[in-house]
Amino acid sequence: MDLEGTPALHRYHMPAEWEPHSQCWMGWPERPDNWRDNAVHGQHVFSKVASAISKFEPVTVCASAAQWANARSQLPQNIRVIEMSMNDSWFRDTGPTFVVNKSKSTSGILEQKVAGIDWNFNSWGGIDDGCYKDWSLDLLVARKILAIERLPRFPQSIILEGGSIHVDGEGTCLTTEECLLNKNRNPHLTKEQIEDELKAYLGIKKVIWLPRGLFGDDDTNGHIDNMCCFVKPGVVLLSWTDDESDPQYERSVEAFSVLSNATDANGRKLQIIKLHVPGPLYMTDEEAAGLIQDGEAKPRLPGTRLAASYVNFYIANGGIITPQFGDKKWDEEAIRVLSLAFPDHEVVGVEGAREIVLGGGNVHCITQQQPAFA
């Protein structure tokens, strides 16, 4: 059912990711031009992510007709596997952004209604700059998920991906100018007009704009979910490096300056926790050779710097599912920092997450939380 008007008009807002979930949605990778060796390695790591999340909350994995049996055989039985067509498996960006409406019923009991925003999508940049040339199936993913769950849908014409926004659930949104102001998204809209759309659809009062995202995150044009996220209202995690010769250093310092001088929607100064990036990591000759690059998707070349970040984690009901890249020093440091940042959550590291970053994202990018009804 489509709702007329904006979510804010209906008193919906996007909740913080640490608020209770009813389930997590994921896709199933198969594109041979994005997932090497016919996605064998990528599927293995997706299975590990889904399994880790399923220990904290229900998980639904969507797979194409050709891959349904394969996905079903690789995933634990407690994970629901349903058939769905898609162009690729980045459900943070192609799935719905869920919003909630908390109100008291006639009996005085607090109820929470759930709906979803169906953003427009153009494969992160359209025909010229996007990651692949046909995204017609991805355009239907959000609508299908909402139909399966029988949830109201807010259609939206502006192009926006879920990985480009983070909210604190109390009126503040984080994003990057590099992505949302990119000419390959909504060139007809000004910064102020985009802010107005975010306020109307996410139910927020303030947008904090970081200039740029993570170095090397060219696929998404600098999504915020690789760079910075909320831990709780007033506290953020920021991708960081101490290496002044690393191109990431300038971006991290720049973001730190913006965040240090910002206040949230409630006037709070932000506490900034630094979370060091791994590596740097680069695509190997062997990894690039495993791709079938036929011109349908953006080429992935050996020697390319991988946009690897520990900020790209998933908050489950009582769990933090975070990527591990095989960089022992920084993998262990990420577990330590996240454990301190989320003392009430169990931090679970997923080994082999390099396979996801080879495809252009990580744990947060392949997941989409659905808020719980109350």
List the helices and strands and how they pair.
Layout: E1 21-27, H1 40-54, E2 59-63, H2 68-74, E3 80-83, H3 91-94, E4 97-104, E5 110-120, H4 126-129, H5 141-148, E6 153-159, E7 166-167, E8 172-176, H6 177-180, H7 191-202, E9 206-210, E10 228-232, E11 235-240, H8 247-260, E12 271-276, H9 285-289, E13 314-316, E14 319-323, H10 328-341, E15 346-350, H11 354-359, E16 367-371
Parallel strand pairs: 1-2, 2-3, 5-6, 8-9, 11-12, 14-15
Antiparallel strand pairs: 1-16, 4-5, 7-8, 10-11, 13-14
Description:
With about 375 residues, the protein is an alpha/beta fold. The protein has a single domain (about 10-370), classed as L-arginine/glycine Amidinotransferase, Chain A (5-stranded Propeller), CATH 3.75.10. It has helices at about 40-55, 70-75, 90-95, 125-130, 140-150, 175-180, 190-200, 245-260, 285-290, 330-340, 355-360; strands at about 20-25, 60-65, 80-85, 95-105, 110-120, 155-160, 165, 170-175, 205-210, 230, 235-240, 270-275, 315, 320-325, 345-350, 365-370. Strands 3-2-1-16 form a four-stranded mixed beta sheet. The mean pLDDT is about 95.
